[in-house]
Design a protein that fits this description.
single chain; alpha/beta; Nucleotidyltransferase, domain 5; 35% helix
């Protein structure tokens, strides 16, 4: 009898302008997940760049959803540059990496699973925020 495969790890990556509200972030998140028929309960964590570590909207959203928020440095995120669907010169000039939402989602999914990650939902932009969803699957031990 074979064991069921492990559930994939799903991680949301978020980027936002200063002052972006939790309700704006939540609207983007809900819209993207609904469009791709993914249940929010399947998501394990949120990720962003360390420059947004104290951003009130991100912190409020993480608290509302009961999900941990992990932030990465631009150096850590830059290693995912080749996997990005969109490379933003403005993001690079402001943060040192070409895409926050996608690279943060990829970085955290990979860290949690200890396996390579991939994008399930490519960068979505809405108002003052960007969203992406990455997945990775843990190998059975």
């Amino acid at each position: 009898m074979s064991r069921p495969s492990p559930a994939p790890i799903l991680v949301i990556g978020l980027g936002c302008q200063r002052g972006c509200t939790a309700s704006t972030l939540r609207a983007l998140l809900d819209q993207a997940l609904q469009a791709h028929r993914i249940d929010l309960d399947a998501v394990q964590a949120l990720a962003s760049i360390d420059l947004k570590r104290h951003e009130p909207g991100l912190l409020e959203l993480a608290a509302q959803l009961g999900l941990p928020l992990t932030c990465f440095s631009s150096v850590e995120l830059a290693t995912y540059q080749d996997q990005l669907s969109h490379q933003s010169q403005i993001a690079f000039e402001r943060t040192g990496c070409y895409g926050i939402a996608e690279s943060a989602a990829l970085a955290l999914a990979e860290r949690l699973a200890q396996e390579p990650s991939s994008l399930v939902i490519r960068r979505q932009k809405y108002a003052q925020a960007t969203f992406a969803l990455a997945r990775a699957t843990q190998k059975r031990r």
